[in-house]
Specification:
The chain has about 220 residues and is of the alpha+beta class. About 45% of the residues lie in helices and about 15% in strands. Strands 1-2-4-3 form a 4-stranded antiparallel beta sheet, sandwiched between helices. The protein is globular. The two termini are about 35 Å apart. Bound molecules: flavin mononucleotide. Flavin mononucleotide binds next to strand 3.
Length: about 220
């Protein structure tokens, strides 16, 4: 496992992979971790498309239009590419499925606690739907959280990663019929082994000085 100092030194997002395929056990460990990532209210509004062949990666690459063509090299040279897709609404059916799963997994010690939790979830959702009116935005925040955790998991497993906002969601959605299923593409993640000649390794990281980023309160 990498330590944090090492990550700070070499944690550049990957710009080119070496074209090799990651070992199956690493992919399995990575996906098992993704499967376990949390979401507010346990809403579980993410679905992942996992492309492990050149053909599947090429289908995802069709969304690199309208100025996003520069991301093609990452998708072509990666081992696997994941599309992080988010539900745009929470239907009664989805909510019932979440509650059924929690019940089947015996998440609650007693019925009263289970009912209390269900009331909290309903109230939280109604707040996003009616008061804040930010349901889809809130759902996508959960997806970004999973992306952050995926990037750290990659670092721990020695998997190099490229998170990408740079794709045309409408094309991705059409290619995979996502909208018909209530989803849209939020982020892409290319994973693999970094090309040792990746140009980004030759330049330093650029961040504002710590004094601008942290305010220490007494
Ligand atoms: C959510 C997110 C989306 C990103 N999208 C892209 C992308 O579409 N293409 C790309 O080449 N890099 C992308 N990046 C990488 C950032 O541009 C990069 O991490 C940033 O410039 C800092 O550079 P460094 O990782 O080399 O320190 C993305 C990073 C994040 C966190």
């Amino acid at each position: 496992m990498n330590d944090l100092k090492e990550l700070i030194a070499k944690g550049h997002v990957t710009k080119t992979f070496d074209g090799s395929t990651l070992p199956a056990d690493k992919i399995e460990a990575f996906l098992a971790f993704l499967h376990s990532t949390p979401a507010s209210l346990n809403i579980q509004a993410i679905h992942y498309l996992v492309a492990s062949t050149a053909e599947a990666r090429a289908r995802i690459a069709k969304s690199l239009v309208g100025g996003f063509e520069a991301n093609a090299i990452k998708i072509e040279s990666a081992s696997h590419v994941l599309a992080f897709c988010t539900r745009m609404e929470v239907s009664d059916e989805h909510l019932a499925a979440v509650f059924d799963q929690e019940h089947a997994d015996k998440k609650f010690p007693n019925d009263a606690q289970e009912q209390r939790w269900r009331d909290i979830v309903r109230g939280g959702l109604d707040m996003h739907i009616y008061d804040k009116r930010d349901l889809s935005h809130w759902l996508e925040k959960q997806t970004y959280l999973a992306m952050g955790m995926a990037m750290m998991a990659g670092a721990m497993l020695d998997i190099d990663v490229t998170p990408m906002e740079g794709f045309f969601a409408k094309s991705l959605d059409e290619e995979f019929g996502l909208r018909e299923k209530g989803f849209t593409g939020t982020l892409l993640l290319a994973i693999g082994k970094r090309d040792p000649n990746d140009w980004i390794l030759k330049v330093p990281k650029s961040r504002f000085p710590a004094a601008k980023i942290f305010t220490f309160l007494d």
